[in-house]
């Protein structure tokens, strides 16, 4: 056949015009196909209602199916309704079921509210929708298709936006069997609700009645579509023969417009359809296949058992596919100790399939194979070290764990204990102790129980079944020459409650002598009482030859040490000669002055604290305390220089601020890097005015009328820090019976507290009553809580009452 000549090509339009025209045509085609699909769906859903009505007419008119079809169309034309609406009315009259009751309720209310003709049309449409929904549900292959049919035909006309069909399990959990109006992601998240989660569907199931909610937003209960459809909703229990097997949950975008009894009857009728489907049809793809009721008989006891274990536990239920074969295991429950390998919360794991949650478990010979074998044979599986794999952000993660798998009834109990960092470190420590020949112990002083590890029994040459040697019996097992060292060790540890160590020679029962070092620390309660002692022994026999080689060096060092002791002794003698421990009381122009000085507890810690109280030629009284930084002979000689210089500078008649300024020049230029704090005061007996200045020193304390307080601070840098420094002055008037206290930091300083706390303790001690000034100073020294073992100076000034 000859082809026709080609027509001349039309000019090509612009690209934008072509694109818009093509998209419009495509959109029109898609919309046309959608309308055809909707019409086909409506016709298919309504065909079942019409066929059922034709069957009723065949029985009543005693005619054939063709005649019944012709009669149905003729009657519909005469009544002015569609054949589907007439078929629904015929079925309602013949069935007299819950659906017909719901339709009659609608008819009665519609006739009362509107004109009879218009109401009849609405009633017929509503009856047709209900019967169409019923027909679609009966013909649906699963609960998912039922949910879509109910929303399209029966619930959307009521203003509903979404619907969920829940299947109830024997343990009180809920499985999403079908849904419509929600996104796939939302349906996936809510595919399983564990027992006891208070959702509207759970309430309807447990209370056995419809549960209405005007709004699910705010603090409403959790449920599917909380963010997509947060308006009102109703959950209606679905059951047959008095047995509840599911719940129908209907959601509105806002508050339901109609909650009349006729709507409730319609919803109950639709819930009955859902129950019929759940009982006779398989669930949708997200729900597991139904299991017999006997499978749940022992499930509550199994969950209680899992919750009582201290290791992470998963309760697994078999997941059967459509062909009746085992496809996977669903994670039905996890206990409170569960820790996910990928760090996910428990809610993200419960209800999921095992291979979906841990896909790497499907590896050949992996965790899933072990679980499947235990479920098939009933033989438990145990492994002390098994590698578990998981995916975290598509990155494989491995963990070593002790795994236990057991079958209990129709469920599988999976227990794992991850070998965490602490366990690995404990294992590493055990090897380190073995290599270093170290053995640990703990002795409970309350119960008298002593615990040793295995390495310590080997160090002592005792079998593991022997009784450990308590610390009190340690001298009996040591060389007699080492008893003093052990005695000091025990006193420091048990009486002074401080960590201690000692080296000694151990006489073992097998005749072997070992050189050991013991290190221990006390365990105290909140009140400071000794509860236990923990520590370790180390075998240092291999290092003993080093000590022998160093014996000569120790001899040479002994002479140097003796020289240091002699130096400290001379320093202490010098300090005590200049600073007697007690002085006073001094009666200076009506002012009573007393002094207390407590030197350091250790000779090597002799410091540079100093004081002075003297009447000057002008009649004023010089009062001062100071503290030179450091210890030893340098601090003592620096103290002598500053004390004597201050007394000479005070004779010039200058004020305390000027005196400290000059004394700073002395410390900076005329000493070898001496720094010190000082407090200087000048008292005028005629005016009772005390002028004072400080160089980085703690402020004086004034006790007046049973109250104590520190004087307001004045500025002043410590002596010797800078070449030039200025010192502010303060002054106040002493009143009769006032007591002024000047002191060094050895009276208050503590290692475990702040200076503010120390001053508060001093003020509380100072405000107590005292028979005399000397008694007050002795009381302050006795009740001082300082723990630095430093020198302490206190100068007390009392103005007797007139």
From TrEMBL:
<keyword id="KW-0418">Kinase</keyword>
<dbReference type="InterPro" id="IPR036457">
    <property type="entry name" value="PPM-type-like_dom_sf"/>
</dbReference>
<dbReference type="InterPro" id="IPR011006">
    <property type="entry name" value="CheY-like_superfamily"/>
</dbReference>
<dbReference type="InterPro" id="IPR052016">
    <property type="entry name" value="Bact_Sigma-Reg"/>
</dbReference>
<keyword id="KW-0808">Transferase</keyword>
<dbReference type="Pfam" id="PF07228">
    <property type="entry name" value="SpoIIE"/>
</dbReference>
<dbReference type="InterPro" id="IPR001932">
    <property type="entry name" value="PPM-type_phosphatase-like_dom"/>
</dbReference>
<keyword id="KW-0378">Hydrolase</keyword>
<dbReference type="GO" id="GO:0016301">
    <property type="term" value="F:kinase activity"/>
</dbReference>
<dbReference type="Pfam" id="PF01590">
    <property type="entry name" value="GAF"/>
</dbReference>
<dbReference type="InterPro" id="IPR029016">
    <property type="entry name" value="GAF-like_dom_sf"/>
</dbReference>
<protein>
    <submittedName>
        <fullName>Serine phosphatase RsbU (Regulator of sigma subunit)</fullName>
    </submittedName>
</protein>
<dbReference type="InterPro" id="IPR035965">
    <property type="entry name" value="PAS-like_dom_sf"/>
</dbReference>
<dbReference type="Pfam" id="PF03861">
    <property type="entry name" value="ANTAR"/>
</dbReference>
<dbReference type="InterPro" id="IPR005561">
    <property type="entry name" value="ANTAR"/>
</dbReference>
<feature type="domain" description="ANTAR">
    <location>
        <begin position="30"/>
        <end position="91"/>
    </location>
</feature>
<dbReference type="InterPro" id="IPR036388">
    <property type="entry name" value="WH-like_DNA-bd_sf"/>
</dbReference>
<dbReference type="GO" id="GO:0003723">
    <property type="term" value="F:RNA binding"/>
</dbReference>
<dbReference type="InterPro" id="IPR003018">
    <property type="entry name" value="GAF"/>
</dbReference>
<keyword id="KW-0805">Transcription regulation</keyword>
<keyword id="KW-0804">Transcription</keyword>
<feature type="domain" description="PAC">
    <location>
        <begin position="500"/>
        <end position="552"/>
    </location>
</feature>
<dbReference type="GO" id="GO:0016791">
    <property type="term" value="F:phosphatase activity"/>
</dbReference>
<feature type="region of interest" description="Disordered">
    <location>
        <begin position="1"/>
        <end position="21"/>
    </location>
</feature>
<dbReference type="InterPro" id="IPR000700">
    <property type="entry name" value="PAS-assoc_C"/>
</dbReference>
């Amino acid at each position: 056949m000859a082809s026709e000549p080609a027509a001349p090509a039309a000019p090509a339009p612009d690209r934008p015009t072509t694109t818009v025209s093509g998209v419009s045509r495509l959109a029109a085609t898609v919309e046309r196909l959608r309308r055809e699909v909707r019409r086909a769906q409506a016709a298919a859903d309504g065909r079942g209602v019409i066929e059922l009505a034709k069957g009723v007419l065949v029985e009543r008119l005693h005619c054939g199916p063709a005649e019944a079809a012709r009669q149905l169309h003729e009657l519909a034309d005469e009544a002015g309704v569609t054949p589907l609406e007439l078929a629904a009315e015929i079925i309602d009259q013949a069935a007299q079921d819950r659906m017909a009751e719901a339709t009659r309720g609608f008819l009665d209310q519609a006739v009362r509210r509107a004109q009879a003709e218009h109401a009849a049309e609405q009633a017929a449409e509503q009856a047709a929708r209900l019967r169409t929904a019923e027909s679609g549900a009966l013909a649906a292959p699963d609960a998912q298709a039922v949910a879509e049919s109910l929303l399209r035909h029966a619930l959307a006309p009521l203003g509903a936006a979404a619907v969920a069909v829940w299947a109830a399990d024997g343990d009180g959990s809920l499985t999403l069997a079908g849904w419509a109006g929600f996104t796939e992601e939302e349906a996936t998240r809510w595919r399983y609700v564990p027992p006891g989660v208070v959702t509207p569907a759970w309430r309807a199931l447990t209370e056995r009645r419809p549960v209405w909610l005007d709004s699910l937003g705010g603090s409403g209960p959790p449920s599917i579509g909380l963010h997509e459809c947060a308006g009102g909703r109703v959950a209606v229990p679905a059951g047959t023969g008095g047995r509840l097997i599911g719940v129908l949950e209907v959601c509105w975008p806002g508050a339901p417009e109609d909650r009349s009894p006729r709507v409730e009857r319609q919803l109950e009728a639709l819930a009955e359809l859902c129950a019929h489907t759940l009982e006779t049809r398989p669930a949708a793809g997200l729900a597991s296949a139904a299991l017999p009721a006997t499978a749940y008989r022992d499930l509550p006891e199994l969950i209680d058992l899992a919750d009582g274990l201290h290791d992470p536990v998963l309760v697994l239920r078999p997941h059967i596919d459509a062909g009746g074969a085992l496809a996977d295991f669903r994670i039905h429950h996890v206990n409170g100790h569960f820790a996910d390998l990928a760090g996910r919360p428990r809610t993200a794991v419960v209800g999921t399939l095992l291979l979906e949650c841990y896909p790497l478990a499907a590896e050949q010979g992996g965790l899933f194979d072990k679980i499947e074998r235990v479920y098939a044979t009933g033989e438990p599986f145990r492994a002390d070290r098994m590698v578990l794999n998981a995916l975290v952000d598509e990155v494989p993660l491995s963990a070593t764990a002790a795994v236990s798998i057991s079958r209990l009834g129709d469920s599988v109990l999976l227990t794992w204990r991850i070998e965490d960092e602490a366990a690995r470190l404990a294992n590493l420590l055990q090897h380190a102790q073995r290599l270093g020949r170290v053995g640990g112990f703990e002795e409970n002083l309350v119960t008298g129980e002593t615990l040793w590890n295995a390495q310590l029994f080997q160090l002592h040459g005792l079998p593991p079944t022997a009784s450990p040697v308590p610390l009190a019996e340690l001298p009996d097992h040591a060389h007699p020459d080492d008893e003093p060292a052990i005695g000091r060790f025990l006193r420091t540890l048990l009486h002074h409650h401080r960590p201690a160590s000692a080296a000694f020679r151990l006489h073992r029962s097998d005749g072997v002598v070992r050189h050991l070092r013991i290190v221990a620390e006390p365990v105290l309660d909140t009140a400071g009482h000794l509860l236990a002692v923990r520590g370790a022994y180390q075998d240092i026999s291999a290092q003993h030859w080093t000590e022998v080689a160093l014996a000569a060096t120790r001899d040479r060092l002994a002479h140097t040490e003796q020289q240091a002791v002699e130096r400290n002794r001379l320093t202490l003698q010098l300090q005590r000669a200049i600073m007697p421990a007690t002085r006073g009381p001094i009666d200076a122009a009506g002012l009573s002055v007393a002094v207390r000085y407590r030197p350091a507890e250790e000779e090597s810690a002799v410091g540079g604290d100093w004081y002075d109280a003297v009447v000057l030629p002008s009649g004023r009284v010089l009062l001062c305390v100071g503290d030179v930084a450091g210890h030893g002979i340098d601090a003592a000689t620096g103290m002598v220089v500053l004390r004597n210089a201050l007394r000479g500078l005070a004779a010039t008649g200058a004020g305390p601020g000027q005196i400290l300024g000059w004394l700073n020049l002395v410390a900076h230029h005329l000493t070898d890097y001496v720094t010190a704090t000082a407090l200087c005061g000048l008292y005028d007996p005629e005016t009772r005015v005390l002028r004072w200045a400080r160089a980085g020193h703690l402020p004086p304390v004034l006790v007046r009328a049973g109250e104590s307080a520190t004087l307001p601070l004045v500025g002043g840098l410590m002596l010797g820090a800078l070449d030039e420094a200025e010192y502010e002055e303060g002054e106040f008037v002493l009143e009769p019976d006032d007591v002024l206290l000047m002191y060094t930091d050895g009276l208050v300083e503590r290692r475990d507290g702040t200076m503010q706390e120390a001053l508060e303790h001093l003020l509380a001690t100072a405000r107590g009553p005292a028979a005399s000034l000397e008694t007050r100073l002795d009381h302050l020294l006795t009740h001082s809580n300082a723990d630095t073992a430093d020198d302490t100076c206190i100068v007390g000034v009392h103005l007797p009452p007139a």
